[in-house]
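1st attempt posting a full record on here, be nice pls
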Amino acid sequence: MELISSFFADCGQKTDKVSLDSIYAMDEMAIRLDSYPSRTYEEIGARRVSAVSTGHELAKLPVALGISASGKKLPLLVIVPRKTVLKEFVPPANVVVMYKTNATFDSNMFLSVCNFIIDSLFKC
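the predicted structure (as tokens):
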């Protein structure tokens, strides 16, 4: 128990000298583009429910969310699974779009995300 207490005390001493704006956390998640075909929304008591499908139930986009310890949010990073840039598509100001064929977060994408974070910090 002493080891744990001393660890947290040491962490507290080290983080007291660090600005909350310089501590960032980021997480990657997938956002589904359509709901599952087995789920739909209807009023309670409905006997038959028609479920319309687009055929893209399993399609998803990976996104990365980042925030500082002070609450400052980084722009949303969306990875679109394609080689070519979408023509005439302008994302909102708080969204950055990256294009990659397999749309996965591998080591190269991780480096791109790190550069993205650093660029975002210096733009603000």
